[in-house]
Amino acid sequence: MTTLVRPALSLIVLMTLITGAVYPLVVTGVAQVAFPEQANGSLLRDDSGQVRGSRLLAQPFSGAGWFQPRPSAADYATVSSGASNLAPSNPALAKRVGEQAQALYVPAQGPVPLALLTTSGSGLDPHLPPAAVAYQLARVAAARQLPLPTLQALVEQSTLHPLVGPPVVNILALNAALDQLAPASK
């Protein structure tokens, strides 16, 4: 019996050390050297060095002077992130989207872009298509008392063109740039 148990226990201890300690430490070390910003959460810092958020996670902004991200089914909480799992035929989803569309609707601009009405799969997607950001330009320009072309240029500078997929705008980074351009009134 000991001839079977002893090697099995030794193998369990060895594999636990390799897969539970050595491998994670090696991968973490390589990531810290090769990709330090990404390995540390892609944090966005202000001029004083204080962390304002992660470029990888959406966060809520309140007030007309900010670009709004996609809605979040989990209220932007990372622990309970996820989609609402409501089917397209669910009346609760139709009601929420309808209320959101009514709140965001600007008559002169046509229908509200779908990206401003629907949640992402994780509920934490920090990116919006440029059209969804452009829909918000007039409101933010009026609230910040900025000329529309200045804001359009800021959005153009903040637009990311990934290797694969359509262009996107990171709302947290855009709002940080906006606050540097014209700080929000406290």
TrEMBL record:
Q: Which GO terms describe its molecular function?
A: ATP binding; P-type potassium transmembrane transporter activity
Short name of one Pfam family: KdpC
Tell me yes or no: is Transport among this UniProt entry's keywords: yes
> Where are the membrane-spanning stretches?
none
Coiled coil, from the record: none
> Which superkingdom?
Bacteria
Give the UniProt entry's GO cellular component terms.
plasma membrane
Lipid bilayer topology = Single-pass membrane protein
Protein keywords: ATP-binding, Cell membrane, Ion transport, Membrane, Nucleotide-binding, Potassium, Potassium transport, Transmembrane, Transmembrane helix, Transport
Where can this protein be found? Cell membrane
Q: What does this protein do?
A: Part of the high-affinity ATP-driven potassium transport (or Kdp) system, which catalyzes the hydrolysis of ATP coupled with the electrogenic transport of potassium into the cytoplasm. This subunit acts as a catalytic chaperone that increases the ATP-binding affinity of the ATP-hydrolyzing subunit KdpB by the formation of a transient KdpB/KdpC/ATP ternary complex.
Family designation = Belongs to the KdpC family.
Q: Please give the subunit comment from the record.
A: The system is composed of three essential subunits: KdpA, KdpB and KdpC.
Name of the protein in question: Potassium-transporting ATPase KdpC subunit
Q: Which organism is it from?
A: Pseudomonas putida (Arthrobacter siderocapsulatus)
